[in-house]
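Exercise: predict the fold of this chain.
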Amino acid sequence: MKGMQLQLFDDLPLPPRPRYLSKEVNSLTSERVTPKIIQWVCQEGGAPSAQELEVIKAEIFSAIEYDDDAYHIAKNLEHAGWDPDADLVDLLEDVAHQRYLAHKEIVYHSWILAHGVTAKFALGDQVSFTFKGKKETGEIIKIYPDAAQYTIHCPQHGHVKKGAGTHGHIIDFEVCTAT
């Protein structure tokens, strides 16, 4: 097991961190973007019936399920029989931001708070982690308890501690181990 975060009380394993494209994140994202899209639909042909509304919601969920790019989402909706225009694409530009916010909220409430996830390491600690398939080491220079992540400074990657430039990689708590 990697790190304390993977262990809960009584040796119960910690469930995995919610994924960015998980059904829970997609559902919350869809809930947040659907009202504006429905307004766009209403401009085209009046208010949809309750049954049509459910179909629209399902098609929006399906269209955003694996994509954040507004153009690709519009193409997904076009494949479902929609007639997207520039106004719809503009509305779809918000999907990536809403998914980011939904993921952040779900990680915090459904994973960090629900399971008591805390940082095992402190500022200045040296840790190991896998980055782009390679084992790396670095120093923790910032801790994000609300996201369960560290900023890890790796001089071998050209990171700087002061001034302009990249200061480190943002890495999830649970993938870090002591060096």
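Check your answer against the key: Helices lie at 23-45, 50-64, 70-79, 86-92, 95-115.
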